[in-house]
Amino acid sequence: MRKTFITMCFCLIGSLTFAQELRSPDSSFSLQFSVNDKGTPTYQLKYKGKSVIKTSKMGLELKDSISFQEGFAIADTKTSTFDETWKPVWGEVSQIRNHYNELAVTLDQKSTQRTIIIRFRLFNDGLGFRYEFPEQKNLNYFIIKEEKTQFALAGDHKTFWLPGDYDTQEYSTVTSDLSEIRGKMKAAVTPNSSQTTFSDTGVQTPLMMKSKDGLYINIHEAALIDYSCLSLELDDKNFILESVLTPDAIGNKGYMQAPTKTPWRTIIVSDKAAGILESKLVLNLNEPTKFKDTSWIKPVKYIGVWWEMITGKSNWAYSDLSSVQLGVTDFSKVTPSGKHAANTAHVKEYIDFASKHGFDAVLVEGWNVGWEDWFGKTKDYVFDFVTPYPDFDVKELHNYAKSKGVKMMMHHETSSSVRNYERHLDTAYKFMVENGYNSVKSGYVGNMIPRGEHHYGQWMNNHYLYAIEKAADYKIMVNAHEAVRPTGMSRTYPNLIGNESARGTEYEAFGGNNADHTTILPFTRLIGGPMDYTPGIFETKISAYNPENNSFVHSTLARQLALYVTMYSPLQMAGDLPETYNKFLDAFQFIKDVAVDWDDTKILEAEPGDYITIARKAKGTENWFIGSSCDENGRVSKINFNYLDPAKKYIATIYSDAKDAHYETNPQAYQIRKGLVTSKTKLSQYCAPGGGYAISVMEVKDSAVLKGLKAIK
Amino acid sequence: MRKTFITMCFCLIGSLTFAQELRSPDSSFSLQFSVNDKGTPTYQLKYKGKSVIKTSKMGLELKDSISFQEGFAIADTKTSTFDETWKPVWGEVSQIRNHYNELAVTLDQKSTQRTIIIRFRLFNDGLGFRYEFPEQKNLNYFIIKEEKTQFALAGDHKTFWLPGDYDTQEYSTVTSDLSEIRGKMKAAVTPNSSQTTFSDTGVQTPLMMKSKDGLYINIHEAALIDYSCLSLELDDKNFILESVLTPDAIGNKGYMQAPTKTPWRTIIVSDKAAGILESKLVLNLNEPTKFKDTSWIKPVKYIGVWWEMITGKSNWAYSDLSSVQLGVTDFSKVTPSGKHAANTAHVKEYIDFASKHGFDAVLVEGWNVGWEDWFGKTKDYVFDFVTPYPDFDVKELHNYAKSKGVKMMMHHETSSSVRNYERHLDTAYKFMVENGYNSVKSGYVGNMIPRGEHHYGQWMNNHYLYAIEKAADYKIMVNAHEAVRPTGMSRTYPNLIGNESARGTEYEAFGGNNADHTTILPFTRLIGGPMDYTPGIFETKISAYNPENNSFVHSTLARQLALYVTMYSPLQMAGDLPETYNKFLDAFQFIKDVAVDWDDTKILEAEPGDYITIARKAKGTENWFIGSSCDENGRVSKINFNYLDPAKKYIATIYSDAKDAHYETNPQAYQIRKGLVTSKTKLSQYCAPGGGYAISVMEVKDSAVLKGLKAIK
Asked: Which UniProt keywords apply (chains A, B) (predicted)?
């Protein structure tokens, strides 16, 4: 069906180009689409008159078929506008506006008589576009050899990047200019139990950049469904990024059946760093949820039998056997090592602590048989997800937790043996329901089985979604570690309440994270969805738990509190051990008080790699929580409180670094002060190197509490 | 534990070898095992003084580890004898003697401090041996790069071989000397929807050979569990075969965790061709079944809505759509092509026919949505195994079949999308149970998904067994097509009642099988287990069903009857259409009468590639059935009846080729004669080219029936 379309004819010597233009609702962005003289689709993007993306080619290379790269002509264009506000089940804000202008270009490829559609949505915070393949006579099944989407950048931007990899995101972010990536790649690729780099100039998304003239630019994707994960290859002569998809075991990058579509490629742009953090573009490009009932999905604050194993203080495994066989090894006859943390009595201690301090759940890792030889053996039948070790009494702990008003949180480490996981999935989920578990942390550590597949290929992306969808049938919430990084799919599948899929707190025990790590992650990893960062480590020297481990957490204690605000997640762990929290109960109070679900969010200060300060309003309350994190330099944070209700008074409790605090030499030096704040208050707050602060701002309802309190200055 | 062992010391210049000898219970075989001067295990096998296997190396090549090939010394040997008789749940005979002498050699590899055991079992009909890897400190997980088991043959034997292939067995057997394999390989590799040859001199097992001095030799494997399928590579200068395992997607050939073992490598030898067919060695090397209740496992005689689609007369698919999406395409709105065979009314016709003629079940292919684009598209979500097409009424047909005393037989074509199959397996099996199906024909047509895996690798062998074991939980019998060829595992898993896993009757419609095909298969394919050969094609010209198909069945009608006896299977199909059988009800009577389970079997005549004549005693009766199949030359078969009870009289009905019958020009010329036989009867029976005969021999209980009958001559 061909509608009348608006064209702009440019007659150049020997060629004819028709350019389509689209503007964002506020006109700050302008997109130009055209087909060049080879019939290749191209686009360019400007923001407030500045070039963000120069003329960039689009298309896909197919296997055993003429590619979707040349020979196109515009057959039709349709423009439309969309403006709706929707409420997320959980989030940083209680409602989100989805407002864009859309251009859908229908392209006919004459030589093959095939048609594709490229759909552009231009928001006030950026661009999303995708390829669509309508149902048609001459296109049915096709195999993608490589996607050929370019992002021709306007300069040698400062970039916050991870080495491109088909199997891990657990690298420390490198901050450098684009031109320096090649030289820094080798050192950036630190060891991992499963890794597959693909290029000396390959990088992952979300990719965060800052141009020399102050534009903040973020490239990612949205709605990664039935497709291979996007990485980028940099042509570092011309500063052109090009899409690289994750291959399967035989080198193919996508199996498609028309009618179908790719995920959205997203480009968020702002002249303020805060604009990147505020953007809801990736969520907006995902489909609304079809879940009829979401009442069973609730944000979770939890503790867990976990950090003591990460540090090496205790073990996941029950015994010291080097090898076990599920269904064969009789664990009732096996000698326990005495270092198995997940035993009934010890778990009860965690339940007691959680109950006492108002936590929703207790995660327990190492509860099930198989941990003796789960790692690095490419073991197929590695776990069954239902058989506990002899010292973990499932029913007893179910009843005990229930009596204490606390939920047990399940752990499904798959060891990347995914056929095995899928074989047990229904049984495992049923087991959870029968035993009072409604949330699961899943993991995909190690090289993938089926062998040859990668963590981020179409095959595995299909699996991750399969596990999430099946979990929803059982009203189970999922937090998937080592899975593909999120792309806003929590809008469609709100039971996906978390992923790790980046270098998290555990790496503080594996050598440490950079002091500025958490000032970068919200601009990169968090753009697609929340991260189960599991902060709250108060004992930063790992040797305090395990004398053989000299790692230390590159953070002050005060900054650990801030992370509950700056690292948005509906799933928040107080990662450390109860015995440590018991030594710092005054600081721990912040973790107890901080909310995990929000009505509103204000980005007060932000510069990727340097600092982030955020204020959030706790859902259904008038209370606010503020967090600030900075890099290895330390700084003075200057914030205001003008988002508070001018008619109200609030008590602020400020947890901050002491003057002599330092993430390396004096991390536990913190101070707590309480005082009165109003919407007029302004605060200058010192942050130590690798430090920060956290503030709870509680509405005053009874003015009696104001007695003796002074105004915060 | 070291016991005293008997050694024979041979002191050679600079080396020391200890040879172990083992004899079969009747001493006809002698095995010699020794470790050569490199510390490589070797064995040799003699039969009645003739060399069958010359000195052959043994071992395994490992990945990233010192191989199990050299540096061994004998640490211990144990010999034992075993003699037991067991009853199979179904079979060619009612009881089987398992009688062997065993030698278990423990080998220490000094440089690695690792131990392996090679276990030999020598029967009166051949040898089986396997590698075992005991639980031990220095061996835990290891990866096999290649197994290095040699079979050094004593001459340039006549061989009946299939091109070695990791994905299909559907080639026509080639008969040639070993030295001719290389030259004939190219022509032998005919096209298949999934094929992966590996060598110009690679061949499959079971491999059948006949030495120039009249020894029949068969090489295969038994108990293929958690391992990769065995093929063989021929060194055609020295006539040494060496093991080749099927690789996975990344080229590895086996993932092992000690304690574990390989399958048995089997060598059956006889100076009579019949000795090969009579051997129960492969079954005997499999473990007894652990199934407590096998009463639900019953041999099946069935017909099916199948051949009419194979010939092209009708379709599996409901419509002519080129592409469908399960869960999306609304079949109630799709226009049917009018050629969909699996519709309720038509299936009822088959049920009526089955009921009228005493068949147990009706197979229906094409009943479920997805057939429009199931083939050759590498489609992941291709079938769901539970959603019928709009014209196939599951409940109606369940009730109708039940009322007629007939079972419905399920069809699960997986299209080799195996993750998809496993995801649906429980639901699919439950659906079967709920709707009265107790047997399923499964299929694995096309290249494997996960991509890069092969049909016969360890990965897929694990799947086939998973499907069989899960089926047993639901009391379902399995007949798996395109799966790995059987290796006697029906002893352990008696619900595996059939496989195709070779070139079957369907190929008669895809160009034809050689006229001698069925005189070879019992010596090759059937050595590991029964084949669902689906014979009984009476209308041999395919053009009678589909004018566009010029193929013809390379067999006379009479020989088609013989196949119910010569091609042993507990699962037997009358493959042709009811409307055709209705034209030949006199010949069809044999198919109605023939049993599918046996108390005894006699091989009357046999020569691989030339002829086979077998007599079998129907279980629990005094009746016998005889079948004879010959090659393109035709012949006169000469048999006796001395296995009949000398005190009884029998009526024999002989279905044979007419004098002018010919598989190509006059296939339907048959004659039927009835007469009296006793244990003294001798018969000379003409067989046409590509022909044969079938005889039912029914005990006479009421001598009144003898009136007017003459003795068969």
From this structure: Calcium, Signal
Judging contacts by C-beta atoms under 8 Å, the chain A residues touching residue B143 are 378
Q: Residues A606, A631: contact at Cβ < 8 Å?
A: no
A107-117 per-position pLDDT tens digit? 999 999 999 99
ipTM: 0.93
Q: ω before A646 within 30° of 0 (cis)?
A: no
Query: How many whole angstroms separate alpha carbon B653 and alpha carbon B661?
Result: 19
What spatial distance separates the first Cα and last Cα of chain A, rounded to whole Å?
Answer: 66
CA distance B233 to chain A (A): 25
Distance CA B381, CA B376 (A): 13
DSSP bridge partners of B553 = none
A-chain residue closest to B141, CA distance: A377
CA distance A524 to A205: 7
**In angstroms, rounded to a whole number, what is the distance separating the alpha carbons of residues B142 and B351?**
53
The DSSP secondary structure of B534-546, one letter per residue, reads -------BGGGT-
For residue range B344-368, list pLDDT tens digits in order. Answer: 999 999 999 999 999 999 999 999 9
Torsion A32-A35-A38-A40 (CA) sign: positive
Tell me which chain B residues have a C-beta less than 8 angstroms from the C-beta of A252.
Answer: 451
For residue B184, what is the enclosing H or E element? Answer: helix B181-188
Could you give the CA distance from residue B281 to residue B268 in angstroms, rounded to a whole number? 7
- Are B141 and A378 a contacting pair at CB < 8 A? yes
| Inter-CA distances, B326 with A177, B77, B138, B366, B415, Å | 48, 59, 51, 15, 14
- Yes or no: say if B429 and B476 are a contact pair by the CB < 8 Å rule: yes
pLDDT tens-digit series, residues A466-496: 999 999 999 999 999 999 999 999 999 999 9
Contact B451 A250 (CB under 8 A): yes
Answer whether residue B5 shows pLDDT above 90.
no
Give SS3 for A520: helix
Identify which of A143, A255, A450 has the shortest CB distance to residue B249.
Answer: A450
For chain B, what is the mean pLDDT?
A: 96
Between helix A394-403 and helix A344-357 the angle, nearest 10°, is 20
Alpha-carbon dihedral B644, B648, B649, B650, rounded to 10 degrees: -50
H-type helices in A161-292, by residue range?
Answer: 181-188, 273-278, 281-284
Segments in A151-305 forming alpha helices (H) = 181-188, 273-278, 281-284
CA dist A378 and B458 (Å) reads 14
Pick among A374, A377, A461, A466 to test the B interface (most B CBs inside 10 A): A377
pLDDT of residue A644: 98
Smallest CA–CA distance, residue A282 to chain B, in Å, is: 26
Does A466 sit within 8 Å of B373, measured CB to CB?
no
Active-site residues of B: which are they? 506
Q: Note if A506 is an active site residue.
A: yes
Question: Could you give the C-alpha distances from A576 to A303, A584, A602, in angstroms and in order?
Answer: 8, 11, 28
The answer to whether the Cβ–Cβ distance between A323 and B459 falls below 8 Å is no
The answer to whether B426 contacts A422, with C-beta atoms less than 8 Å apart, is no
Instruction: Output the CA torsion A134→A136→A138→A140 (10° steps).
Output: 70
Among A322, A422, A426, the residue with its CB nearest the CB of B140 is: A322
The minimal CB distance from B248 to the residues A322, A373, A451 is found for: A451
To the nearest whole angstrom, how far is the Cα of A251 from the nearest Cα of chain B?
9
Tell me if A379 and B141 make a contact (CB, 8 A cut-off).
yes
Q: Which domains does chain B have, with CATH numbers?
A: 3-284 (2.70.98.10), 302-481 (3.20.20.70), 502-713 (3.20.20.70)
Residues A569, A501 contacting (CB under 8 angstroms): no
A53 strand-pairing partners:
A45, A153
A225's tokens: 């469904």
Residue B585, classed as helix, strand or coil, is helix
Q: What is the pLDDT of residue A18?
A: 64
